[in-house]
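User: Fold this one for me? It's Methyltransferase domain-containing protein.
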Amino acid sequence: MAQQVIDRPVFDYMQAYVTCTVISALEKLGALDQLAEHGVVPAELGYEEFLGEATFRYLAERGIVRQEGNRYVLTKSGRHLYDERGYLLWLAGGYGEALNSLDGLLSRKQTFGTEVDRDVRWVAVGSALVGEADLRAEVMEILGGIEFTTIGDIGCGNGHFLIDLCRATDAKGVGFDISPAACAEATQEVERAGFGDRIDIVQVDATDVDSVPHLENIDLVMAFFFMHEVLELGHDVLVDYLTRTCERLPAGAYVLTTEVAPPTQSEDTAEAFGPEYVYTQALMSQRLMNAEQWSAAFTEAGFQVERIVEGRLPGSRLILVRKPLA
Ligand SMILES: C[S@@+](CC[C@H](N)C(=O)[O-])C[C@H]1O[C@@H](n2cnc3c(N)ncnc32)[C@H](O)[C@@H]1O
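Assistant: Here's what I get for Methyltransferase domain-containing protein.
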């Protein structure tokens, strides 16, 4: 008997919520890479038995995996989801607990940053996966057109992008991050990649430019999904921050930054990612700016805007600016 197709979007929301949570959890546990490489046998993962079986059965029911004997492997659509898993990890792993406490935050019974917080580790790991899938090609194209020897990655997270770029370009690198956990993970990843002699990781609050070491020797600053942390402190603070950064960098140095622009429509927007991104940033009272506003802030700070490139990540803009040569 043919299955009845039910056109009731409420069930799509349920499916999306559970799928997002399951994929994020399996990525945190390291099971998705195994699943992608050679499939998994749930009983061999050491998970709680009943729930482990139920998890993969659920994914099979939703067409993400299929069973081959006692092993589950990714289907074609499961593989697409695997390639884009960074978005789900970023959302459910990074912001899941905070979103689950939304009632407490809205009613002021809880405060973000004290009782409730995002999980910066999974925000950073998710964002690195997103960058790899949806920004790398554009970044490589931009970097192919400029010359540099030392990359400074502000808000480097787990360091994957920095390692990738140093590998691809022969540059040296310094990664800066405020999170001790991110720095520990980045240091470990740098060692694992064999780049211990080319990349340093420094734990620092990079919103305080004067405490960021080595800027005088860095000719390419990367700041991906970081600058809005400074904008959160106020537009004037952002312009001062960029001005001071510009002063400290050598003449001709580049800054490449990526941010997501707020949706252009306020009602019933069809944008793929913008509204969800803007909403999660609102948990931290962070506002976002569009590429023109970022360009204006960089220009006011003394940089010249070289290029603005649309990323594959919906709503993203890569903005390349340069400190004038003279
Ligand atoms: C969204 S993640 C982006 C990670 C990485 N740039 C990427 O694109 O994948 C933001 C990173 O900025 C770091 N961060 C936030 N505030 C910071 C600050 N004040 N100083 C340095 N790093 C900061 C966080 O710890 C996190 O690793």
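One thing worth pointing out: The chain has two domains: 9-83, 120-322.
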